[in-house]
Amino acid sequence: MPSAADIIRDSITEFSRLQNWMLSVKDKDPATYHSMYDRYIELKVTLTSLGVNLTELDKIKD
What we know:
By secondary structure, the protein is an all-alpha fold. Helices cover 66% and strands 0% of the residues. The chain has helices at residues 4-24, 30-49.
């Protein structure tokens, strides 16, 4: 079973990658971008619930 530290590390990595993809998308196809945005919100909720301060990590402005 992964430790909390492993979950946090993996989630931060995925959160950062996803944000970079979202920011680089030029043609924001509604279906694709919406799917990415849903995952972004899921990761944001997960990291916040684990006590991670997203102030410095969050590049997407809602």
